[in-house]
């Protein structure tokens, strides 16, 4: 029996109406779409982590290696244990919270922050093993479950347009069309790449997203070779986070063998336990836990909806398995020296390419492992090129909203809030919170309190407490 047949049998490919080729292509698509994390995660965490005797360049490289290993381990568990096409890596937003709120804002030592990540992961493992996480997710109101996918779609599109330099921040309107679009080679190349990808997608070309990502990257490198990298930083749209020397290409960082010696990072969380201040530490664990829990839940349900995985009640069957992969990934990440590992919404790009089994995740994990040998191979794809996929998938995921009963206000209100709050707050968890808090309120107001479960009131109350703590200056 050949390798293809072995993979097909192991992942039960034929029963799920897919092929090995489709799964591999889906995995490649997901990897290319999320590979930016190999550059961005070290860029964020290296600002908060300071190891005596380790220079900035080596620290950045070590963090890139740790990012790759944690992503590969978590995604391997997702592939071989959960058998789902979801990929995992250190989460965006949570890494910024780690660096700028916990370490800089609260003055907590970075090793203690890693200890909090480790504790969060262990808690997740325990709660998942006893079925508590699955039970809580099943308490999500039906309109919230049905709306999560569309909310994530808008969120993805916003992230994509920002990376493509099509939108920029604005003091008056918060978000606006880039005022220097015609002067910005990234914006122009990105938009041409997006339109080309959408055209291929509309024609039903298989692998259109990969073709778009690679094609846009090639054009970007060609433009760089022609001298278009000399872009005046004063013309960069306000709020842009992309450095001027990597506008048209991937990371220019260089690595040597020292990057693979991660011993100063791995196990550093143990030192953090010696610096714990109980109340502050508990708040940090609580925040990591709360945001990661609902980010992951939202991603699994939203992407699962796009893949056709949800049952008639809007639940993801055997969700405890991908939740366990997430928990193990977070625990391993904290042990290695990175922030919380979570399921990536970019997994939607692979699902849209037809990925339906753990072979998609196995492909992503394999590509992460391969990139270890050629660090930073994964960083060779410019972020603006890979994020074209997010806009394409965002458009597709908007269709999930048709399942919502919009003529019933007790459904329309929580569903609408879930969809709108996600992109406007830049958080999947906050969008879910808006839907969960509003659902019992409108049900009660409509005289339909018999439809409510006590657990839904508890969830809504927990979110209210969370926001009170999070925005009152306590943290």
UniProtKB/TrEMBL annotation:
<feature type="transmembrane region" description="Helical">
    <location>
        <begin position="209"/>
        <end position="231"/>
    </location>
</feature>
<feature type="transmembrane region" description="Helical">
    <location>
        <begin position="279"/>
        <end position="303"/>
    </location>
</feature>
<keyword id="KW-0813">Transport</keyword>
<dbReference type="Pfam" id="PF00860">
    <property type="entry name" value="Xan_ur_permease"/>
</dbReference>
<protein>
    <submittedName>
        <fullName>NCS2 family permease</fullName>
    </submittedName>
</protein>
<feature type="transmembrane region" description="Helical">
    <location>
        <begin position="89"/>
        <end position="107"/>
    </location>
</feature>
<feature type="transmembrane region" description="Helical">
    <location>
        <begin position="388"/>
        <end position="406"/>
    </location>
</feature>
<feature type="transmembrane region" description="Helical">
    <location>
        <begin position="144"/>
        <end position="161"/>
    </location>
</feature>
<feature type="transmembrane region" description="Helical">
    <location>
        <begin position="451"/>
        <end position="469"/>
    </location>
</feature>
<dbReference type="InterPro" id="IPR006043">
    <property type="entry name" value="NCS2"/>
</dbReference>
<keyword id="KW-1003">Cell membrane</keyword>
<feature type="transmembrane region" description="Helical">
    <location>
        <begin position="323"/>
        <end position="345"/>
    </location>
</feature>
<dbReference type="InterPro" id="IPR026033">
    <property type="entry name" value="Azg-like_bact_archaea"/>
</dbReference>
<feature type="transmembrane region" description="Helical">
    <location>
        <begin position="357"/>
        <end position="381"/>
    </location>
</feature>
<feature type="transmembrane region" description="Helical">
    <location>
        <begin position="59"/>
        <end position="82"/>
    </location>
</feature>
<feature type="transmembrane region" description="Helical">
    <location>
        <begin position="412"/>
        <end position="439"/>
    </location>
</feature>
<dbReference type="InterPro" id="IPR045018">
    <property type="entry name" value="Azg-like"/>
</dbReference>
<feature type="transmembrane region" description="Helical">
    <location>
        <begin position="24"/>
        <end position="44"/>
    </location>
</feature>
<comment type="similarity">
    <text>Belongs to the nucleobase:cation symporter-2 (NCS2) (TC 2.A.40) family. Azg-like subfamily.</text>
</comment>
<dbReference type="GO" id="GO:0005886">
    <property type="term" value="C:plasma membrane"/>
</dbReference>
<feature type="transmembrane region" description="Helical">
    <location>
        <begin position="181"/>
        <end position="202"/>
    </location>
</feature>
<keyword id="KW-0472">Membrane</keyword>
<dbReference type="GO" id="GO:1904823">
    <property type="term" value="P:purine nucleobase transmembrane transport"/>
</dbReference>
<keyword id="KW-1133">Transmembrane helix</keyword>
<keyword id="KW-0812">Transmembrane</keyword>
């Amino acid at each position: 029996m050949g390798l293809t047949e072995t993979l097909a049998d192991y992942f039960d490919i034929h029963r799920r109406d897919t092929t090995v080729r489709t799964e591999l292509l889906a995995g490649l698509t997901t990897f290319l779409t999320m590979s930016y994390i190999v550059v961005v995660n070290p860029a964020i965490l290296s600002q908060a982590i300071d190891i005596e005797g380790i220079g900035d360049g080596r620290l950045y490289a070590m963090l890139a290696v740790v990012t790759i290993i944690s992503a590969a381990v978590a995604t391997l568990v997702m592939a071989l244990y959960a058998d789902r096409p979801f990929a995992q890596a250190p989460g965006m937003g949570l890494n910024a919270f780690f660096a700028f709120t916990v370490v800089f804002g609260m003055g907590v030592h970075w090793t203690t922050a890693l200890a909090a990540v480790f504790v969060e992961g262990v808690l997740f493992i325990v709660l998942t093993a006893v079925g508590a996480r699955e039970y809580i997710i099943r308490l999500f109101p039906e309109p919230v479950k049905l709306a999560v996918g569309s909310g994530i779609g808008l969120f993805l599109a916003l992230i994509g347009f920002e990376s493509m330099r099509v939108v920029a921040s604005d003091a008056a309107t918060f978000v606006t069309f880039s005022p220097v679009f015609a002067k910005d080679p990234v914006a122009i190349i990105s938009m041409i790449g997006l339109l080309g990808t959408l055209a291929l997608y509309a024609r039903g070309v298989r692998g259109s997203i990969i073709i778009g990502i690679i094609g846009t990257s090639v054009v970007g490198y060609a433009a760089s070779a022609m001298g278009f990298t000399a872009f005046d930083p004063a013309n960069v749209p306000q709020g842009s986070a992309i450095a001027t020397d990597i506008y048209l290409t991937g990371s220019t960082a260089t690595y040597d063998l020292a990057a693979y010696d991660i011993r100063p990072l791995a196990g550093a969380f143990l030192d953090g336990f010696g610096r714990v201040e109980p109340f502050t530490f508990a708040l940090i664990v609580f925040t990591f836990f709360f945001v990661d829990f609902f980010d992951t839940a939202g991603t699994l349900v939203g992407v699962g909806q796009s893949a056709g995985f949800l049952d008639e009640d809007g639940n993801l069957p055997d969700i405890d398995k991908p939740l366990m992969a997430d928990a193990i990934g977070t625990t391993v990440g904290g042990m290695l020296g990175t922030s919380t590992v979570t399921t990536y919404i970019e997994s939607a790009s692979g699902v849209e390419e037809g990925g339906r089994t753990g072979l998609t995740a196995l492909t992503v994990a394999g590509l992460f492992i391969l990139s270890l040998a050629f660090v930073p191979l994964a960083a060779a794809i410019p972020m603006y090129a890979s994020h074209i996929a997010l806009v394409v998938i965002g458009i597709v995921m908007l269709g999930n909203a048709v399942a919502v009963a919009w003529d019933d206000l007790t459904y329309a209100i929580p569903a609408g809030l879930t969809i709108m709050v996600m992109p406007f707050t830049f958080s999947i968890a906050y969008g879910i919170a808006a839907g969960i808090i509003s659902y019992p309120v409108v049900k009660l107001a409509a005289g339909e309190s018999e439809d409510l479960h006590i657990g839904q009131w508890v969830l809504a109350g927990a979110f209210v407490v969370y926001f009170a703590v999070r925005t009152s200056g306590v943290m």
